[in-house]
Design goal:
The protein is α+β, with helices and mostly antiparallel strands. It has three domains: 4-55 and 168-244 and 338-399, 3-Layer(bba) Sandwich (FAD/NAD(P)-binding domain), CATH 3.50.50.60; 92-163 and 246-336, D-Amino Acid Oxidase, Chain A, domain 2, CATH 3.30.9; 414-516, Helicase, Ruva Protein, domain 3. Helix content is 35%, strand content 23%. It has 16 helices and 21 strands. It has helices at residues 4-13, 27-38, 67-71, 75-91, 110-125, 138-144, 166-179, 229-236, 305-316, 373-387, 422-431, 447-456, 462-469, 472-475, 477-495, 499-513; strands spanning 17-23, 43-46, 62-63, 97-105, 134-137, 155-163, 183-185, 188-196, 199-207, 213-223, 247-255, 264-267, 276-281, 284-288, 292-293, 330-336, 348-350, 353-357, 363-367, 438-440, 443-446. Strands 3, 4, 5, 6, 11, 12, 13, 14, 15 and 16 form a ten-stranded mixed sheet that branches. Strands 1, 2, 7, 8, 9, 10, 17, 18 and 19 form a nine-stranded mixed sheet that branches. Helix 2 packs across helix 10 (373-387). The protein is globular and about 70 Å long. The relative contact order is 0.15.
Amino acid sequence: MFRRSTQMEAVTALEGHFDIVIVGGGASGLGAAVDAASRGHRVLLVEQSDFAKGTSSRSTKLVHGGVRYLKQGNVSLVLEALRERGLLVRNAPHLVHSLPFVIPNYHWWEGPFYGIGMKVYDGLAGRLGLEPSRWLTREDVLGVLPNIESEGLNGGIIYHDGQFDDSRLAINLAQTAVEKGAVLINYMRCCGLIKEGAHVAGVRLRDEESGHEMEVRAKVVINATGVFADAVRRMDDAGAKAMLSPSQGIHFVLPREFLPGDTAIMIPKTDDGRVLFAVPWHSRVVVGTTDTPVDESSLEPRALPDEIDFIFTQVSRYLTRDPKRSDVLSVFAGLRPLIKAEAGSTAALSRDHLISISESGLITLAGGKWTTYRKMAEDVIDHAEMIGALDHRQCVTHELPVHGYQPSTNDESHLHYYGSDAASIRELIVADPVLGERLHPRLEFIKAEVIWHVRHEMARTVEDVLARRTRALLLDARASLEAATVVAELMAQELGQTPEWQQAQVTAYQALASGYLLPH
């Protein structure tokens, strides 16, 4: 069972000695844990909050090669991302699927310009490609995108990229790592590094639930904390210069009626030069994203007024029905850990991610994106084996199925995102039909899922369930607020918690979720 108590017991059993300790439970850290454990190394991963709490649950929900990188001429990066996209579709088919995108053309030159570009994109994907791109007439575009702005529309290009559920993939990666022998603990903060002489030899940890502190020894420590990487680097060297320059991106979630059908819109250039997407997801529509430099990194970034106005302005140009503030079901923000240009001079730079090794042997993995998480993990564990003087073992994740792997399914319910675990969730309902009840009339999620999250997915708080195990917070923030009491009661029963704990959980969740509502 993937329970926190059993993971804590595993630390004790190994007497706090590991080959590799990974700090950070987002895409980078979880990928590294899967890679290292599947090679046979003794691995501990700790996360200060919940798995994928930060950037890794706040993406545009796309597994993509990066059309904008192609436009920049960065062919090597596109090649790598397209290969990784293909591997992810193959290794986690219950979570990743092909999605058609249309680039609408409103100027005569856009058709041949983007059409040729997408043919190159198809060709670079090779045998791991999805479906070939093709030109669309004006009538074709209106057929698949009935809500698209028709005035001045000449036609379009349709191409295919990948779509996924980011935090569900994160949980499945955590389960995969544990199945391969790794130990993973959420709500465990790294509050310092242990040094022997000049070398990093482990970490000091504080259990955020109990307040208990402990020391864990390791042959090598990997800093995979995303936008917080510089803070961990300064535990090693107080004078370390900043490596990252965080940038914020926000997304709106709208009702499906704004983009009916199963085709996404890709706007290749907005006023700030970014690509804008409107993507069908979980029977809603995700619209984004922005690119706003920020000075401070936060676990709960908030959308800024200018970003909100920007999204409304851009999306209104392309839809016949302009969304209003009252239409927005949720607004969420995420921080990208962008690497500063000067950081590459003293580090091993690989495409868009960076591996930096300090004089004391602390390894920092920074940058990257969900699509290339597996390749980033392979690279950083290759380095970890060298720095930690570990036996070099071949990476095996190219063909490693992710937990929940199910090659094909006719499951029309939302439970198909659980893959092979869906059958076990249904068994809970057979044993207790009450668990088949919905958490809220406007949400598809049911009580049995909450039980599953606690027993098998290390959910510890109401937020864990409503924000990341389900995606209720993103899909309908107001409905998730109203469902919090039911979730707290179910969790308290499973965890043996008190009524006071229940009320504290509901209060904390209400404070958090209110930040995802757009004031009318």
